[in-house]
Amino acid sequence: MAKLETKYLGLSLKNPIVVSSSGLTNSIDRIAKVVEAGAGAVVLKSLFEEQINYEINSAIYKGEGFDYPEAMDYIKGYTRDNAVGEYLKLIKDAKAKFDVPVIASINCFTADEWVDFAQQIEQAGADAMELNVFMVNTDKNSDPAEYEKLYYDVVNNVSKVVSIPIAIKLGSNFANLVNVVNKISVSGAKGVVMFNRFYEPDIDIDKMSITSSEVFSSPSDIRRTLRWVAIMSDKVDNIDISASTGIHDGEAVIKQLLAGATTVQVCSAVYKNGAQVIAQMKSKLESWMDEKGYSSIDDFRGKMNYGKIPDPQLYERAQFMKYFSKYE
Does the pLDDT value for residue 119 go beyond 60? Predict the structure, then answer.
């Protein structure tokens, strides 16, 4: 029987399937469903500084203390402390109830809050922390290097104040992604999650308004992550990679592990098909490993990454036109 145990961020996981930060992990009842289905670890729904500030501003806008500065300060403090307190309680309760690693997730935009949230999360007992970082650079005169430095600073500042392992969840919009991940790896992060699935705008042409595009990923979205997992696992050897987006079945799990992923993160597949899809992924992984004669995941992880295949250019963009040249 194949053994699915693996290590991620120095943590022992029963298997490499991690349920990513989402509504699937925002309560004990919901976490219980994915753990019972076989999740190897869970990433709690992110603590968003932006959401906390929105709630603060909403309360103030409604007139609660608007005319009294002292009352406004109280509202700000109470709303913030209440939101953070609920999150810390979720960490403690999850740690007490479940026997899988509990990874916290935070999304901030001010340096002080990154550090403050991180310290409180560690004290609450989280096994690790995922920094959910995304910044939209709209300044045409800005230096891309300064934009990237913000990511390194976040990781560096947080890693200085906590001892639990840190992973950073990234988008793919960098001129040199390999260089960015390499610098992140020496800034204090033990892992990188590729890639974040962000809110993306759409336009309603009838109502002439901005709407949200499709929330869930599709199986075809694996193409975006598979290439970079395969490249990164060869080029940067001192950081764990968690593959995210487009993982909807056991075959996709196997592909990402072959590309070099340490773990995979699932979300949309669980929303669409229920928690049982996790058990199905595990079953497919086990049967495939038995069929191929692999006794552990380490026996084949990275076997198809950029440096292991005969022609690594197959993972490069130059092959795109060559692939489609037959369609004329």
Answer: yes
